């Protein structure tokens, strides 16, 4: 019961943030009608979001935080596609080198995992679990030849769920599907990374779905360009100690590389680490515990 109540609170708060972002502000009485809850519940949600810096409370409601991109702001897929496209392509090629034919892998939502999906389409006998509509479309298209006939390619398992602005599927349906599965590698796109906050996202429901993905994976590989470092979203869903490999690009500053060298993960810099250990499965054993 407690888990269900917590999930419902996360869903409510995600909807509140979406309303604040789209409309530039909301009133408490509007939220009570839309969400079907009491004034007291809405005010508690606003208090919690204000403490996180996701919005600013005003008399009778809430407005966006001025001056900075809120921790609860979730860019749409099209908006993110134009950010660091060359770096994402390099990261995708480096990450694909970790995948052995016949593996079961999972890809979360995101534009970097989308770039990775296009590379993985050519790896034989893969099974790909994903909660990304965009990733599923790429891999489905790869199975079809120009005349529409079946042309092979990865077997795709799409989780189902509620669609987010970044075209990921999240929520209870996605969470239950993922919890029943096990995969060799998880390739995880992230909104932000930091030593203190770990991996984070602005979407509360997506955070829970990402936790389920991490729990179902033997190895966790984060694929993120250098601009993600130091960014903190509304909700943390994993610590850096839960990551086996971080694949990034050469724009990562030296001071950040030094920070990461103190952590028990492998840093793989696309375009610099050209010689990988032989055998993707043997090269990166699962984290302890």
UniProtKB/TrEMBL annotation:
InterPro entries: Carb_Metab_HTH_regulators (IPR050313), DeoR-like_C (IPR014036), DeoR_HTH (IPR001034), NagB/RpiA_transferase-like (IPR037171), Tscrpt_reg_HTH_DeoR_CS (IPR018356), WH-like_DNA-bd_sf (IPR036388), WH_DNA-bd_sf (IPR036390). Keywords: DNA-binding, Transcription, Transcription regulation. Signal peptide: none annotated. The keyword Metal-binding does not apply. PROSITE patterns: HTH_DEOR_1, HTH_DEOR_2. SMART domains: DeoRC, HTH_DEOR. Residues 63-84 are annotated as: Disordered. One of its GO terms (molecular function) is DNA binding. It comes from the Bacteria. Residues 71-84 have a biased composition (Basic and acidic residues). The keyword DNA-binding applies. Residues 9-64 form the HTH deoR-type domain. This is DeoR/GlpR family DNA-binding transcription regulator. It comes from Streptomyces chilikensis.
């Amino acid at each position: 019961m407690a888990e269900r109540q917590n999930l419902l609170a996360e869903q409510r708060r995600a909807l509140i943030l979406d309303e604040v972002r789209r409309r530039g502000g909301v009133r408490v009485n509007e939220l009570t009608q839309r969400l079907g809850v009491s004034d007291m519940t809405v005010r508690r949600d606003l208090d919690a979001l204000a403490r996180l810096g996701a919005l600013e409370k005003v008399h009778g409601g809430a407005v966006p935080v001025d001056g900075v991109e809120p921790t609860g702001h979730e860019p749409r897929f099209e908006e993110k596609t134009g950010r660091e496209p060359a770096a994402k392509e390099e990261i995708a090629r480096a990450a694909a080198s970790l995948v052995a034919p016949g593996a079961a892998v999972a890809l979360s939502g995101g534009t970097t995992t989308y770039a990775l999906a296009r590379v993985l389409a050519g790896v034989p006998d893969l099974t790909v679990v994903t909660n990304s509509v965009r990733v599923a479309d790429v891999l489905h298209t790869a199975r079809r030849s120009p005349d529409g006939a079946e042309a092979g390619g990865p077997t795709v398992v799409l989780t189902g769920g509620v669609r987010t602005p970044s075209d990921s599927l999240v929520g209870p349906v996605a969470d239950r599907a993922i919890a029943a599965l096990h995969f060799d590698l998880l390739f995880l796109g992230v909104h932000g990374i930091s030593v203190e906050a770990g991996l984070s996202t602005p979407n509360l429901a997506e955070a829970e779905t990402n936790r389920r993905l991490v729990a179902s994976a033997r190895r966790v590989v984060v694929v993120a360009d250098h601009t993600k470092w130091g960014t903190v979203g509304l909700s943390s869903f994993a610590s850096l100690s839960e990551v086996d490999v971080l694949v990034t690009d050469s724009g990562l500053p030296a001071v950040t590389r030094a920070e990461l060298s103190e952590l028990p993960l492998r840093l793989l810099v696309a375009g610099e680490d050209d010689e990988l250990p032989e055998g993707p499965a043997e090269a990166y054993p699962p984290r302890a515990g």
